[in-house]
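Notes from the 1:1 (GR / supervisor)

We went over the backlog. Supervisor wanted to see one worked example end to end before approving the batch request, so GR pasted a single chain during the call. The sequence is below; no edits were made to it. Supervisor asked that the structure be written out right there so they could see what the output format looks like.
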Amino acid sequence: MADFAELEEADGVRLTWNVWPSTRVEAAKCVVPFAALYSPVKPLGPNAPVVAYDPVRCKGCGGVLNPYAAVDFQSRLWTCALCHARNAFPAHYAGISDQNLPAELFPTATTIEYQTAPSAPVSPPAYVFVLDAACAGDELAAARRALGAALDALPDYSRVGLVTFGTHVQVHELGFSELAKSYVFQGAREYSPSAVASQLGLGGGPPPGMTRGGPGAAPEAASQHRSGGARFIVPLSECEFTLNNALDELSRDAFAPAPDCRPARCTGTALTVAAALAAAALPPGSCAARILLLVGGPSTDGAGAVVGRPLAEPIRSHKDLAKDAAPHFPAACKHYAALAASLAAAGHALDVYACSLDQVGLAEMKPAVERTGGLLVQADTFANPVFRESLKRALGGGGGDAAAGAASTSGGGAELA
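Structure output shown during the call:
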């Protein structure tokens, strides 16, 4: 394992299996699926080559020349390891030989950095955190601490947003540092993306309740107030204090459940609002955001609910799903399928960190995670080291523990059958 750890540290790649099966029978016995987690923004090691020219690409699939490509030095051709297409070397590779190799063909150059002029401006990464405020007080405190530690791993230029939910959904305006400010959506209602954008003032006009330069308006506050999506998804260097204050002051949902009821938790509505916020606040096609859901229990209210609030109603089981006896399942699946389509169309990803001894509705949410290329980490509590390290390393570019956590739980969770 030490050798694999060194490779992961150098290349930023971790596989769910380090040894692959050699027969179909052995492959059929593997419960954990075969997958790779790659962190493209991970800082390179000191021995990684850095070259000042463009990569040589395959004419068939667009793959890049690498040590695993088959090279014919006599005919000056190389065969792509991905699509097996034969490609000719460019003219400036005329002197190539087995004794005179370019940097990208060195056996140890499994990762290489090309210092080329970008064809278009590169947008900073964007993260929208969706935090469950309906879980117990100690769980919420552990989630806040883990989120605060993970934020320290983000570069200052990263853009971040915060959405919290319980009975209602709150979108925090991180770009307004004068005081804590948020927009509230009813958890039991269904919202269209255009309705969310309009409520947040992202439809082209000023936000509701705000006048610019009108009677009684403070000119300094109006001039300093951010416009559009920059009010909600803000560079970390500019909103770190506001974000930390929002997390520190965040308390459990004020609407306490009755003794015989589950807490009101509108997970589906919160994700709908977060997806609409990311789509409206970020320029289309120029920035792909990650929506990170930190949830500590089943969705009981609004779109995507998987169980009712009364404790007398049991949550669906494997047998219920097999017999089509889960009354909330079809509607929840339809909701998350629509969410997956909207996220995929915008180029955004959904990561789910489910930390609960109870089911949270992963069977319904699974397509939205898979279709957008997101991560799924399941643990029993927000204080679990698997969750804390997975979140921290996924944001910091390590990514290794995130793969380990997802791999160790995706096959055993009752909801993923």
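Supervisor's comment: The chain is about 30% helix and 15% strand.
Batch request approved.
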